[in-house]
Amino acid sequence: MSRERRRTRLPLVAPSVPETPEVTVGAPPAPPKRESSKEAPPFLLDFFPLESEAGTRLSRFFDRLREGRLSTTRCPKDDLLHWPPRTACPRCHTEDLEWVDLPDRGRLYAFSAVLVGAPLGMEDDLPFAVGLVDLDGTPLRLFGRVEGRPWNELEIGTTVRVESYEIADGRVFYRFRVAG
Amino acid sequence: MTVRGVALVGGATTKFGVRAMTWTELAQEVGVALFRAVPELRSEDVDSLFVGAAMPERLAFQSHVAPLAAEHLGIRPTRVIQRTELACASGQSAIRSAYAAIAAGLSDVAIAVGIEKMNLPSMAEANTAMACVMDRAWDGPGGATAPSFFAMVAQRHMLEFGTTEEQLAAVSEKNHRFANSNPNAQFHEKTFARDKLLRLPVVAPPLRLGDCSAMTDGAAAVVLVSEERAAQFPGSHAWVRGTGQYSDFHNLANAGSLTDWVGLRRAATEALGRAKIGVHDLDFAEVHDCFTISEIVEYEALGLCGPGEGGRFVEEGRSDLGGDVVVNPRGGLLGCGHPLGATGVAQAVEVHDQFAGKVPAARQVPDPEWALVHNLSGSANVHSVMVYQRGGAS
């Protein structure tokens, strides 16, 4: 299955200080915004999540990602940074969480590559590198696609930047790119 | 509540491999094999059925599989009927659930069956189903697959401890050699010398084809009974003496150390503690070698060797026949294939048949008394362990 993808690199701004906490995920849902489905595969064969308010209470994450900001939730009570972003703190179970921006740089902790056996929708991407990245200045180690250098030229410790990109139907996700 | 003794009194598997048949046909084939292997079993005595099936919705387009299996096995459960799903450990989950039901007095005679049909007309669809085991929405878009995750485990193990590709190949060679004496193994007739393994194509660096278990169709079934009913079945039984499970993460970001599987340490400590034995009392172990590196990390987490010593442990033959403890005499997931729901049940069949002295000499562990079965599921998110002791009717 081939799927045309428009890949746009968006500028990423990573503030050094987390922004003012704001309570969002506990708020009542806003009126649904229609999700475009013109080029999306059937929902049950699609790894990319629903991103709008009609499909998720974490639409804020994707709105920010669209602006080039990788963010996540934090529990102020437990001083706990979550990954992935949550609607409730898994430690204290409060729904009163705040959003914080994450740094846009990190280092490869481990990596490999998918050379065969890609899931539907990813066959045209083969081969592609994947890795676990220690995000600078955080306890988070995020998994994701690694672009910008062939897998056999990567090294543990390689510095990567976080970037957001858009898929054909307009949804966004994050990935890593070897820092130039 | 009184806890009763539970004996696994027999079992059987289908041939594992690329099978020209459906999910329900696998269920029927394993039913035939089970009732032949345990001739004392009467279908009207079976009061409960536990069906281990990881993803029949995805792979066979079928839900509600427990009553479907019951109908095809020809049994009408009156106490408990359910499916158990725990990805790659769905089969052991079926056995654990049967054990718990019998120990609690809810069931007297139960069948635990594991069934998976994984070879589809489109293998891309099967790969997609497999990738859903990961955190689909957050790890999925990045292309998280089982081979690439376990490849990162191997990379870290190589970095931290100097483990080599040759040591990975030693696991594969051993398990494939055992599979050569298991006619139901997917790779029963294929030989894999270490130098050949090192020339196979790379799937997810540093893992090659021979480091990865296959996509497999297969089914396995066992009969578990209460201590009061065990005398009805002659021969050696495998008595459940201990169980343990531990789950500490799902999203890959929360894996912690890739090379020290704390969850397995905890699950094994729990299971061995309940059995009141130590790891060095084990005569053999059936562990989850979904990838060669998994078996190496498992030696260490089980305490069969020290941290970082797993590569040398296999290279020196200490997990082979004649070594400290025989690991995966059935042929492992590497040699037998890995039909997700069936694997854990097939491992238990091996334990029973090893205790009964019913396996071919080339893989028979001499006079075994204690065995451990381990399954991991997903990206080693959960570890499930059971400990069995050989015994007679009581």
Going across the biggest sheet of chain B, name each strand in turn: 3-2-4-7-1-8-12-11-9-10
Radius of gyration of chain A: 17 Å
Q: How can the largest sheet of chain B be summarized?
A: 10 strands, mixed
How much of the sequence of chain A is in beta strands? 25-35%
Count every helix of chain A, treating DSSP H or I runs of 4 or more residues as helices: 1
User: What is the residue-averaged pLDDT of chain A?
Assistant: 85
Q: What is the typical, i.e. mean, pLDDT of chain B?
A: 97
Distance from first to last alpha carbon of chain B: 21 Å
Major beta sheet summary of chain A: 5 strands, mixed, barrel
User: What is the total tally of β strands of chain B?
Assistant: 12
Number of strands of chain A: 8
In sequence order, what are the helices and strands of chain B, one letter per element? EHEHHEHEHHHHEEEEHEHHEHHEE
| Large-scale geometry of chain B | globular
Going by helix content, strand content and strand pairing, the class of chain B is alpha/beta
Overall geometry of chain A: globular
**Biggest interface pair, residues each?**
A-B, 37 and 40 residues
Q: Determine the N-to-C terminus distance of chain A.
A: 32 Å
Topology order of chain A in helix (H) and strand (E) letters: HEEEEEEEE
Which terms would index this structure?
heterodimer, A: 180 residues, mainly beta, five-stranded mixed beta barrel, three-stranded antiparallel beta sheet, 1 helix, B: 394 residues, alpha/beta, two-stranded antiparallel sheet, 35% helix, globular
